[in-house]
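Hi! If you just cloned this repository, the fastest way to understand the data is to look at a raw example. We've pasted two of them here, unedited. The first protein comes first, obviously.
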Amino acid sequence: MALVLPFTDTTCDLVLSDVRQVLDAHGVVALPTETYYGLAVRPTDTAALQHLMELKGRPADKPILVLIGSPDQLPQLVRSIPPAAALLMELFWPGPLTIVFPAAPDLPALLTAGTGTIGVRLSPLLQLQHLLQRTGPLTGTSANRSSEPSLDTAAAVQGALGAGVDLILDGGPTPGGLPSTMVDARDRPHLLRAGALPTDLIRAALARQGYELSS
């Protein structure tokens, strides 16, 4: 069974040492996001990434998205910030929008699945931002086994994955609903996944600056 600790604006600093201890030991932390619970490891930790893949039963050809606590953490993950990506960041971050960038060349292949790209999101959940500003970027793949439903409570994560997760940060039920919207914002913006941020808002914002969103 995983250790469960309360995770709110007031307890964020109190759990920080426990989170760091798990991450330093190549472990996995489950935490709430603005949609569902996610699984967090350091994105540069190959051993932890391997553990995460095995825990989820995730195919090696699927990249793993990363959560950041502020835009100044982005340069360590990406090779460049294309103009369309910069526009989307300005308009829709923090928010439920995962943006795909050219990946920094030294990121593990397990993270990028050899695609040369990296999906990144700045969550609007304040206690998550607060934590990530202190831990650095962490993965945010959904806290479930591949092909199974996403989970919106700490208890559900404990029931499904507790034996493989080291720490669960219990922020209460998450909103659920649709996952984050995902856009590849490199040369020509491309919708990879419709989700919580309406596609029409993204399409209109890009069109005002001369970009067409394909799908």
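Ok, and the second one:
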Amino acid sequence: MPGAHVAGVVARTAREARLVTMDSTLDATEATAPAPAAAPSDAVAAVLTGAVDQARQAIVEHSGDTVGEYLGVSFEDETAATHRFLANMPGYQGWQWAVVVAAYPGADHATVSEVVLVPGPTALLAPAWVPWEERIQPGDLSPGDLLAPAKEDPRLAPGYTATGDPLIDDTAYEVGFGRRQVLSALGRDETAQRWHDSDHGPGSPMARATKRVCRDCGFMVPLAGALGAMFGVCCNEMSADAHVVDFEYGCGAHSDTPQPPGSGSPLYDPYDDGVLDVVEVAATEAPAEEAPETPQAIETETPAEEAPEVPEAPESPEAADDAETVEEA
């Protein structure tokens, strides 16, 4: 970075403060809207606007040949104006050189007040600064890192103060010593709400997909203290192993899940089709298909007593003569 990025680094005048505010270099919470500046007289304005070459030379003297295209001039008040140039510097794409010049009424030339490198509308800027303790997120802690709790963390309470948890308070009283800090009532409530709303709470997709809950599961070990009324640790390696689960959480690996029906054994012995020999069989004529047998009609026998009597027809004389002829033959 060149040695003279900023000439007059410290903001000494209200003009620079307004310039920096206009270019969004101050934090929005600290910036205040400047009062409308009075316009310079025509004579002073001519002197201020005519100092373009003087402003360019001031940049060259402080930063070398880094001056780009001239971008224009704006008036700060009745005696000052700012000339802007595009900055040609590696790593400062979109930045601008701002040169503040001043002239009093009746002056025949302007005076350079300050040269500042400021970001332009298209400049790449760093994100807003966030305090370190606010940047740390769950999961950021790595092996070897040290993370101290916030000063006067409301989630913690001194160990000698009653926490409201009978098990902790009674045990500390009986033993005679305790931890320097213990979980406060606020910290316990926030923890319970966070666990209840997590992926191992009753509202998770896994819990909604089953009717069995962890409250009566043999793989769940309840926690000690007040949190043990709602939470436990799962000890099933096929499910939420080593995770804190809500009593109303559930999964398909519940200890009371019934066995599937059937023995599970195959009907036939398995075989390895990789050891089979494939043999080509010569094509043969297929035997003619036999016509399917026509099922015989089933005759229905009518009982004799129920069958109607059919009267015999009288025998004609011609038929009787024919019968006698046949017998004689």
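That's it. A detail worth noticing about the second one: Residues 1-31, 323-329 have pLDDT under 50 and may be disordered.
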